[in-house]
């Protein structure tokens, strides 16, 4: 590669790399993209920023894995609303040294994820600087005819259910997970989803988001929590259950339904991804973890938080 490549060389290379998409009336190359949006009645919008040293480290992560993750985390947010992703734009701050080749690999990962979920890559912005990689992607999506599922609809008596398993994502899942877009749509079609969220900060923390928005409480059965193999095999001083409750970046779906719908989902699961009943919504304002002997202990919102320092 030449020594004096700049952002316009990079953008030109991307225009050759990124295929056209039928949703784009106007794509990369103008001041704004023109997206053929399928439903004029509403648009879901989500954005997530990933930073090297916080959300990933290169190495061991490859730029392609980082690209996949940077779009997948946003698709997971669309899934949490039981929506369909439509288009995305990406803003990237590339390290000045080596950033050209890194950026091309990064965009390959983004492109693979976009192609997998039929998302139009509509454009974005690129800068260079003397610091690590930062990438922010915004995704536009559409709700289904049943509407967007929010965090605020959980009701006392609801079953609390989850897809997949939890804990230990740092062992690799956080880089190559599959966002539960198809699963969310299948659940939404099969049941009346009262509330839903994707588990990014931690199972306990994200459950608390539902409880706070819905103004309800919960009891979680510790024996029912599906623990991943990575969490079960962890060798630190924390138990597999602690990992499952607090590790974060599992990107599974946590949702509530009435008991009748819950039973139907367990009897005829509308997808190959397993689902589990892990607890029940209560009329209170506290969250309890029920042990194997029936003892109830307060469950705080364990999980990841971006912190500030003085």
List key phrases describing it.
Phosphoribosyl-aminoimidazole Synthetase, Chain A, domain 2; 26% strand; 30% helix; single chain; 60s Ribosomal Protein L30, Chain: A; globular; alpha+beta; four-stranded mixed beta sheet
The named CATH superfamily of the largest domain: PurM-like C-terminal domain
Structural class: alpha+beta
Total DSSP E strands: 13
Order of helices and strands: HEEEHEHEEEHHEHEHHEHEEE
CATH names the topology of the largest domain as Phosphoribosyl-aminoimidazole Synthetase, Chain A, domain 2
CA-atom Rg in angstroms: 21 Å
User: What sort of overall outline do the alpha carbons produce when their principal axes are compared?
Assistant: globular
What is the second-level CATH architecture of the largest domain? Alpha-Beta Complex
Distance between the termini: 43 Å
Q: What's the domain count?
A: 2
Q: Quick summary of this structure?
A:
The protein has 310 residues and is an alpha+beta fold. Helix content is 30%, strand content 26%. The strands form 3 sheets. Strands 8-10-7-11-9-12-13 form a 7-stranded mixed sheet, sandwiched between helices. A 4-stranded mixed sheet has the order 3-6-4-5, with helices on one face.
